[in-house]
């Protein structure tokens, strides 16, 4: 399937074609299926200049007026969820129902984000003086997103940044630019020119955008390695930063769980989106007293799950999104085999496209790469532990600290374990539940700063204290 029309960049309220294009590959076939615009350096300059030019009036417009426009934007996007989901499924690979959940979930989330308010604090109010601290926008925000949830992770940044009074240049991943560009096109005439710019390009565009002197804040979601490069680049101009980076989330399964009941929940915590989730369970610690039954129930459940192209109705898991990651995950599995590690289960996968079979690894050592690195694919190490203290120590023994889960029927005990885990979000008896009003923050090498909640909203602002001497 080809995309119906060539997509364009959105710069200064106008749709722009480009001299060069990027090839977008369908991961279910491994074949090119569309072209996306490749933004030139002149077009990048123009996008940033127009965002700078639009900033003063947008800032002065006031939060209520901005809120109304953003609500209209969410409502307009909600009328196109089906066609956006098809495009997303094809470029990202995920099953259509999951693509629809991503697009509709994003639109609902954006609607909720528009309700946020900026606080104003009265520090002092006396006969002599009034001092308040309010929040002011930062200027031009560069928003950069990865390829695993291309729509959600990109637009999550845009609405709070705009609501707070900033203007935005949004750049999706070169692997998955289409749906985000399409959404930019749908909103092209809604905002004053330059307030929202959407650009796409190859690997060179990200560094050019983040290093541009016209950018005041970078909101980046991607790998820890790239996050470090972005942070180094931001040092010279002291650009504000939010970094949402990689994770290697542990799950601790306590001895009192019911293996049959828990297996599907553990499975989807690890394998939803074919494991390509920053907050997927990537290390599964199971108490030795129930290790065998939980492992068996997981393998039995895994056997029932169907891999296939996202647009085929019965597919439950799609391919890995791109060739580089596909080869990396396959290599990780090959390394397990060559090191003599036992595979508890390995499924089958379509031969065409970037499909990796579901793989469960039986109690590998902590030093094995499949444990110590973020796999970001459908391979999960099951790890046996004897005491809860030991499980907590091993779970925390990671440079990452994004999320974690604890599973147990004694919820008091599970909550005690949760509080000892070094992670920005810890779930008990569920996984990956997020809320627009709850802070999401990576600890350790999983990030810097916060997205969502009041703290996330405030990260698109700076405090400004105004002091009035009354007499
Ligand atoms: P990536 O770091 O390769 O790319 C992310 C974005 O940054 C893309 O838009 C890319 O074009 C751009 N980019 C690449 N190099 C750049 C540079 N030097 N300077 C500026 N921009 C640059 O990440 P990816 O491979 O697309 O995504 C997978 C990673 O993202 C995984 O590690 C995953 O855990 C992480 N992730 C984190 C979260 C979170 O919220 N913490 C969410 C999803 C994914």
How does this model look, in words?
The chain is of the alpha/beta class and 471 residues long. The protein has helices at residues 41-60, 63-78, 81-92, 96-113, 150-163, 178-186, 205-210, 224-234, 259-271, 291-303, 323-338, 369-372, 388-396, 411-419, 453-458; strands at 9-11, 14-16, 20-26, 31-38, 121-125, 129-137, 140-144, 167-171, 196-198, 217-221, 240-244, 249-253, 281-287, 342-346, 359-362, 379-385, 400-401, 403-407, 425-428, 443-444, 447-448, 461-469. The strands form six sheets. A seven-stranded mixed beta sheet has the order 14-15-16-13-12-18-19, with helices on both faces. Strands 9-8-7-10-11-21 form a six-stranded mixed beta sheet, sandwiched between helices. The chain is globular. Bound molecules: nicotinamide-adenine-dinucleotide (NAD). Nicotinamide-adenine-dinucleotide is lined by residues 144-148, 153, 171, 173-174, 206-207, 210, 221-223, 226, 229-230, 244-247, 278, 374, 376, 402, 442, 446-447.
Compile the SSE list and pairings.
Blueprint: E1 9-11, E2 14-16, E3 20-26, E4 31-38, H1 41-60, H2 63-78, H3 81-92, H4 96-113, E5 121-125, E6 129-137, E7 140-144, H5 150-163, E8 167-171, H6 178-186, E9 196-198, H7 205-210, E10 217-221, H8 224-234, E11 240-244, E12 249-253, H9 259-271, E13 281-287, H10 291-303, H11 323-338, E14 342-346, E15 359-362, H12 369-372, E16 379-385, H13 388-396, E17 400-401, E18 403-407, H14 411-419, E19 425-428, E20 443-444, E21 447-448, H15 453-458, E22 461-469
Parallel strand pairs: 7-8, 7-10, 8-9, 10-11, 12-13, 12-18, 13-16, 15-16, 18-19
Antiparallel strand pairs: 1-2, 3-4, 5-6, 6-22, 11-21, 14-15, 17-20
This protein binds nicotinamide-adenine-dinucleotide.
């Amino acid at each position: 399937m080809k995309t119906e029309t060539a997509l364009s960049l959105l710069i200064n309220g106008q749709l722009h074609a480009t001299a060069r294009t990027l090839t977008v590959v369908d991961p279910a076939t491994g074949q090119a299926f569309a072209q996306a615009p490749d933004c030139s350096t002149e077009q990048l300059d123009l996008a940033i200049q127009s965002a700078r030019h639009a900033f003063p009036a947008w800032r002065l417009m006031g939060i209520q007026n901005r809120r109304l426009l953003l609500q209209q934007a969410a409502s307009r996007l909600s009328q196109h969820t089906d066609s956006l989901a098809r495009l997303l499924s094809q470029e990202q690979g995920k099953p259509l129902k999951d693509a629809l959940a991503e697009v509709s979930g994003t639109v609902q989330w954006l609607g909720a984000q528009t309700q946020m308010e900026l606080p104003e604090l009265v520090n002092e109010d006396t006969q002599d003086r009034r001092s308040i601290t309010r929040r002011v926008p930062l200027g031009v925000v560069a928003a950069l997103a990865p390829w695993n949830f291309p729509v959600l992770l990109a637009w999550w940044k845009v609405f709070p940044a705009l609501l707070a009074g900033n203007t935005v240049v949004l750049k999706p991943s070169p692997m998955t630019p289409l749906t985000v560009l399409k959404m930019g096109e749908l909103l092209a005439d809604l905002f004053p020119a330059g307030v929202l710019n959407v650009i796409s390009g190859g690997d060179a565009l990200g560094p050019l955008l983040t290093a541009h002197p016209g950018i005041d804040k970078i909101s980046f979601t991607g790998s820890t390695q790239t996050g470090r490069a972005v942070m180094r680049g931001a040092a010279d101009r002291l650009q504000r930063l939010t970094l949402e980076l990689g994770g290697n989330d542990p799950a601790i399964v306590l001895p009192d769980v019911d293996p049959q009941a828990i297996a599907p929940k553990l499975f989807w915590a690890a394998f939803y989106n074919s494991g390509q989730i920053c907050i997927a369970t990537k290390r599964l610690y199971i108490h030795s007293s129930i290790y065998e039954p939980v492992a068996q129930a997981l393998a039995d459940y895994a056997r029932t799950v169907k891999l296939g192209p996202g647009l085929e109705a019965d597919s439950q898991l799609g391919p890995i999104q791109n060739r580089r990651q596909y080869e990396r995950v396959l290599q990780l599995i090959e390394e397990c085999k060559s090191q003599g590690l036992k595979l508890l289960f390995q499924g089958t996968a379509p031969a065409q496209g970037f499909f990796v079979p579901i793989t469960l690894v039986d109690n590998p050592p902590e030093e094995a790469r499949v444990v110590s690195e973020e796999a970001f694919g459908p391979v999960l190490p099951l790890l046996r532990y004897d005491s809860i203290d030991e499980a907590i120590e091993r779970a925390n023994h990671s440079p990452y600290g994004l999320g974690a889960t604890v599973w147990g029927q004694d919820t008091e005990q599970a909550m005690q374990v949760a509080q000892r885990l070094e992670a920005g979000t810890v779930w008990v008896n569920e996984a990956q539940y997020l809320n627009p009003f709850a802070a999401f923050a990576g600890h350790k090498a999983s990030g810097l700063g916060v997205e969502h909640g009041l703290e996330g909203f405030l990260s698109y602002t700076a405090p400004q204290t105004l002091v009035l001497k009354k007499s």
